[in-house]
Amino acid sequence: MNHQKIILYVGSVVLLIIGAYNVYMGQMSQGIIWIILGVIFLSISPQLGRPLTAVKVRKMMTLLCALILLGIGAYTLYMADLMAGIAWLIAGLMGILISLMLVGKTEVLES
Asked: Is 54 in contact with 76 (CB distance < 8 Å)?
């Protein structure tokens, strides 16, 4: 297993822990969002590295979403909500990592 997938798995577990903590503290909707996001990243991780078609469009869409998540995280940290800000930043960084790990059919054949 390469380092990128390990980072994705660790980030997913951190999001799940933050979600469980938020549910425990009574913030049900925010906790459920983090749990769902952690499960989504866990389900995406095994599919990375497989060749895809139209990979440039998918990379751009994933990168745009990741930048939006980073922006939300920066704003949340600016508003002094530490736990939610860290979770948004982790989700944004994992989105950027996923965007970098997407490969097209020609890239797989060349290596």
From this structure: no
Contact present, 25 and 78 (Cβ < 8 Å): no
Q: Are 18 and 86 in contact (CB under 8 A)?
A: yes
Asked if residue 61 has pLDDT above 90, the reply is no
pLDDT at 111 over 60: no
* Long-range contacts formed by 12-19: CB under 8 A, 24+ apart: 12/38, 12/39, 12/41, 12/42, 12/45, 12/94, 13/38, 14/38, 14/87, 14/90, 15/41, 15/87, 15/90, 15/91, 18/83, 18/86, 18/87
Can you read off the two tokens belonging to residue 75? 């704003």
Question: Locate tokens 């979403």: which residue?
Answer: 65
Residue 108: how many CB atoms within 10 A of its CB? Answer: 12
